[in-house]
Amino acid sequence: MAKILSIETSTGVCSVAISDGGKVVASKELYEANSHAAHLTVLIEQLFSENKIDPKVDIDVVAVCSGPGSYTGLRIGVSTAKGICYATNKPLIAIDSMHVLTHPVVNQNWDESKLPMLFCPLMDARRMEVYTALFDNKLNLKEEISAKIVDEESFAPFLDNNKIVFFGNGAEKCKEVIKHDNALFIDDIHPLAKNLAPLAEISFTKEEFEDVAYFEPFYLKDFVATTPKKKVL
Fold it and tell me: What is the mean pLDDT of residues 129-146?
């Protein structure tokens, strides 16, 4: 068992958590877009202070969400996690955002008496594009993590034989095009540090650590900078 600091910054939500043996003992979440650079280290310091934690002594490992997701958010989260690892000489664990997003949904009570269930995280990218994957009820991948442009045929082969639960900040825009009877949408599901923690505990027991010096976020796609249409003189 390990005491883990978990950091999740793959979307607009900035969150941190402390867990002991996979059980979350303290967490903080900030639902404020573009707040990661200003508030992530503040949330971590508050978490340590309020729970009387010395990271050099009381924390065994740092876990971070590896992506995909917001380019800037992932960069800030991973940089912060690596900095803490260097300062405390602790190992690093990375968990992808699709598993973190899906973990609490899979653990709800679902009726599979009529059709098997699949779970589909949808993380907003651009326009009708999302980062997505498909999981079964044991959190096993049934379709690999990818960037996908959603249309009425998306997931059709799976929807014909399964109930699929869609969720995440990309789900709302997909409701208009995925109209299959076996599609179910649920709201207000975010990738959070408190849901990263139990997954990180599993990785800890397997000693699945990253190379702190060379680890990079799983961006999935190259960053594309945009420029304003109108120039300001």
Answer: 96
Residue type, 79: S
Angle between helices 71-88 and 36-50 (to 10 degrees): 40
Q: Are 177 and 153 in contact (CB under 8 A)?
A: no
**pLDDT for 85:** 98
CA distance 93 to 173: 32
pLDDT class of 34 with cuts at 50, 70, 90: confident
HEC profile of 34-80? CCHHHHHHHHHHHHHHHCCCCHHHHCCEEEEECCCCCHHHHHHHHHH
Q: At what angle do helices 193-205 and 97-106 cross, to 10 degrees?
A: 100
For residue 68, say if its preceding peptide bond is cis, omega within 30 degrees of 0: yes
DSSP 140-179: -EEEEEEEEE--TTTTHHHHTTSEEEEESTTHHHHTTT--
pLDDT per residue as tens digits for the range 216-226: 999 987 544 44
User: According to DSSP H, which parts of 51-188 are helical?
Assistant: 55-58, 71-88, 97-106, 156-159, 171-174
Instruction: Please give the Cα distance from 55 to 62 (Å, whole number).
Output: 10
